[in-house]
Structure to design on (740 residues):
């Protein structure tokens, strides 16, 4: 999120792609409604389903799943044609917009209508409204990401905002509504397989920086791997670990994993039934040697599997039984305080991890980093963990996030403005929750990314200089005069290093400073670079251009590609998917070969959209185990348009089979609804405990069966994974429906 929920109140227009905040962020959605009241802000919702958010919108565009790129190019085409774009912003602060302009020309309103299903007239109407009502904020969530082209979608949306000059503005920006509490923190700390914490990547230099910062021997770290080369390779993803177990057997995707398959799965805080392709997941679970599930509830992976031995359910404590820092969707941090001691025999997640590291023989190395700062004999949990993060993570500017400061913010939360985040009284000069980057222990945080109307000390900055000084002879630095306010350097400038600091900042370092300073701002644990930058009003990461064009990606600019399972075969030929990708996070992944295997739409003519309910969360066990929440939706269901249901002879409330191209099926209750058109259905994914028509509720340990069980929508979500991130295509697929 470049701005914040509160800042949405400053918007004059709000365009929402693939998010349903009225249901999934109902408290945050209050800010959207206030923007409507305060500014008469217009809300535009682009969604294949008429959601509760759409019900509050001024305009609802019923888009076909997976066609947001044509929709946004269609908007851009009109914007460029009418000269509604921000020419100065583009000239000074963007790289590669010419290529976008060329591609946009192809997407006339009529063509957009054909591909997306949104009437040309409506596209023209909403584009004019959005382009003219600045600042406009752009919202997205899972409707853009869960596609084979999800990563292109998430580039396209910021490009639209860059074209309109809506970036770095109050009331503008791209505000991506994140999922769980602290999912931003989990991402920042990298609960992922392709980078070290803080997005440092897996290169040797990063490993060495972390070895030093953690107080462990680099050679020891290296020795944990089978061979050095594996240190630099990404691991499996959550969506595809099962392929690692099945290891190419029975026609499953082949893996590159050093000649061995995965044998053990340790799960801490994922429901497993929330992941696409449940039939494959079941096969993966069944073939494991050992399965460990740490969860406050019975993790329904244990119910799905037929595995009888070596399945361990460890009772985890909840977040109410522990404390520590958590990061919110707008990059702010808060301190969470323990409410009660861990109940019964449950243990907190960190205790489980500490005990495990003792048994596995690396507790000392695991905890060494927490003792480095004051050369301590022992550490205090969790304060020293938070301080360790502050000491090491420079890339996103966490230096200012010390435990003491975070606690002070949380204790004084009433001393901050709800919209701007600015502090009053004792908190003056700081923004609530110290939104990152928070460059130094004195810096007050940066509530609006890329805002050059503020000084760096007051949270201003340009775009990060991350990809060199030039590409193909074109400068990557921002244009003359576009540095943040009150900067000693008025123009674009590179990221700050030991070698260029004196020249860029116009200063001279002392010999002592030169001896202490790190190689560049990312690894400068002395923090001299950041401190000097603050004095001169310079952002340590440089002042560069945002890239509309990424020369290392399969599509340098976002391009439309039909979903792997598309109802429009004519368009599949015109806009085919990517070439198959070998060794994608260790798994050979199919794209065009799957898409062109046959005309899937003949057998499976209906679009399948999955999503959320307000009373349930994720895999849903937590809520289905609550009598009152379960009572609101006691059974798994599928929203179906009465006209479609009528054609199939299915009555409201009748049971029906939903089949997927993967050869799987689920039995669910029909729920008549006009929220979906006749060509698509909507299903929540919060149910588990039944599998392809079989009730498995006898498998729950005595006394643990939730109040509601049912089929998981993920049993029929289709094959398909994003080309960069490998997120499953759970929002674009096909199905066939028949009476049960
Ligand atoms: N009550 C509740 N709240 C939650 C959660 C929960 O499970 N329950 N989960 C949390 C988590 S982890 C997350 S990530 C967020 C997710 O929050 P959201 O992203 O809002 O959640 P979804 O309902 O999955 O999807 C949003 C919308 O995307 C639409 N959509 C599907 N395909 C497309 C498409 O191709 N284009 C467009 N434009 N739209 C499309 C769907 O119809 C749906 O209305 O919610 C968080 N909040
Ligand atoms: N078809 C389809 N599938 C989807 C999606 C979709 O839109 N459509 N959305 C995807 C998205 S965005 C997400 S984020 C995932 C969400 O799916 P999950 O990550 O599975 O989400 P949850 O059910 O919220 O949480 C997982 C587990 O964590 C446990 N838990 C809660 N607190 C703690 C704790 O403190 N410690 C431990 N150890 N465990 C705890 C819960 O009991 C639960 O079993 O689903 C994904 N799957
Ligand atoms: Mo999520």
């Amino acid at each position: 999120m470049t701005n914040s929920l509160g800042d949405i109140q400053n918007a004059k227009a709000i365009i929402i792609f693939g998010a349903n905040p009225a249901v999934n962020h109902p408290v945050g959605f209050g800010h959207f409604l206030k923007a409507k009241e305060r500014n008469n802000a217009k809300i535009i919702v682009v969604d294949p389903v008429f959601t509760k958010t759409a019900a509050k919108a001024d305009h609802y565009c019923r888009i076909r799943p997976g066609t947001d790129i044509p929709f946004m190019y269609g908007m851009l085409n009109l914007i460029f044609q009418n000269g509604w774009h921000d020419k100065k912003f583009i000239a000074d602060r963007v790289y590669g917009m010419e290529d976008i302009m060329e591609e946009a020309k192809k997407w006339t309103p009529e063509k957009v209508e054909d591909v997306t299903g949104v009437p040309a007239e409506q596209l023209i109407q909403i584009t004019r409204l959005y382009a003219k009502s600045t600042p406009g904020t752009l919202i997205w969530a899972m409707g853009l990401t869960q596609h084979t082209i999800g990563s292109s979608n998430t580039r396209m949306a910021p490009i639209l905002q860059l074209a309109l000059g809506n970036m770095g503005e109050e009331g503008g920006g791209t505000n991506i509504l994140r999922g769980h509490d602290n999912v931003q923190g989990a991402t920042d700390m990298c609960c992922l397989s392709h980078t070290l914490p803080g997005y440092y990547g897996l290169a040797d230099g990063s490993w060495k920086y972390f070895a030093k910062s953690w107080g462990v021997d680099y050679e020891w770290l290296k020795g944990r791997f089978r061979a050095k080369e594996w240190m630099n390779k990404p691991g499996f993803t959550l969506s595809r670990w099962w392929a690692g177990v099945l290891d190419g057997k029975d026609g499953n995707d082949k893996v590159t994993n050093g000649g061995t398959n995965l044998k053990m799965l340790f799960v801490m805080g994922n429901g497993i039934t929330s992941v696409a392709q449940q039939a494959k997941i079941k096969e993966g679970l069944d073939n494991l040697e050992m399965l460990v599930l740490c969860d406050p509830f019975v993790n329904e992976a244990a119910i799905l599997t037929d595995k009888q031995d070596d399945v361990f359910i460890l009772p985890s404590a909840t977040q109410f039984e522990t404390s520590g820092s958590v990061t919110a969707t707008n990059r702010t941090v808060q301190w969470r305080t323990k409410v009660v001691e861990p109940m019964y025999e449950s243990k907190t997640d960190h205790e489980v991890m500490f005990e495990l590291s003792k048994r596995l023989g690396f507790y000392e190395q695991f905890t060494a980093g927490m003792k480095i700062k004051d050369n301590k004999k022992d550490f205090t949990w969790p304060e020293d963990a938070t301080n360790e993060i502050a000491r090491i993570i420079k890339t996103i500017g966490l230096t200012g996030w010390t435990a003491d400061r975070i606690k002070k913010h949380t204790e004084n939360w009433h001393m901050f403005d709800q919209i701007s985040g600015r502090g009053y009284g004792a908190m003056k000069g700081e923004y609530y929750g110290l939104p990152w980057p928070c460059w130094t222990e004195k810096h007050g945080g940066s509530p609006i990314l890329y805002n050059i109307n503020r000084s760096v000390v007051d949270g201003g900055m340009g775009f990060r200089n991350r990809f060199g000084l030039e590409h193909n002879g074109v400068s990557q630095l921002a244009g003359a005069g576009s540095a943040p306010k009150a900067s000693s350097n008025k123009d674009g400038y590179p990221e700050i290093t030991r070698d260029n600091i004196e020249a860029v900042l116009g200063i001279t370092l002392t010999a002592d400073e030169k001896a202490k300073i790190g190689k560049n701002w990312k690894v400068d644990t002395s923090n001299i670079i950041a401190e000097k930058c603050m004095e001169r009003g310079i952002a340590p990461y440089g002042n560069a251009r945002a890239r509309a064009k990424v020369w290392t990606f399969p599509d340098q600019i976002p391009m439309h590609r039909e979903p792997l399972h598309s109802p429009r075969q004519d368009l599949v030929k015109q806009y085919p998917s990517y070439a198959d990708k070998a060794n994608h996070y260790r798994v050979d992944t199919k794209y065009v070969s799957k898409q062109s295997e046959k005309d899937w739409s003949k057998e499976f003519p209906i679009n399948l959209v999955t999503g959320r309910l307000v009373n349930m969360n994720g895999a849903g066990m937590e809520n289905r185990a609550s009598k009152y929440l379960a009572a609101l939706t006691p059974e798994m269901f599928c929203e179906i348009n009465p006209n479609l249901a009528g054609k199939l002879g299915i009555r409201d409330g009748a049971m029906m089979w939903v089949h997927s191209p993967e050869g799987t099926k689920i039995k669910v209750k029909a729920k008549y609804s006009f929220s979906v058109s006749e060509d698509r259905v909507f299903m929540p994914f919060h149910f588990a405990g039944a599998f392809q028509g079989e009730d498995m509720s006898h498998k729950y340990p005595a006394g643990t069966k939730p109040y509601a069980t049912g089929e998981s929508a993920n049993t029929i979500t289709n094959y398909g994974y994003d080309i960069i991130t490998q997120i499953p295509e759970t929002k674009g697929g096909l199905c066939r429906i028949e009476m049960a």
Q: What stands out?
A: Residues 142, 146, 179-180, 268-271, 274, 294-297, 299, 316, 318-319, 349, 610-611, 617-619, 621-622, 685, 713-714, 717, 730 surround MGD (ligand 2) (CB under 6 Å). The CA atoms of residues 133 and 618 lie 35 Å apart.
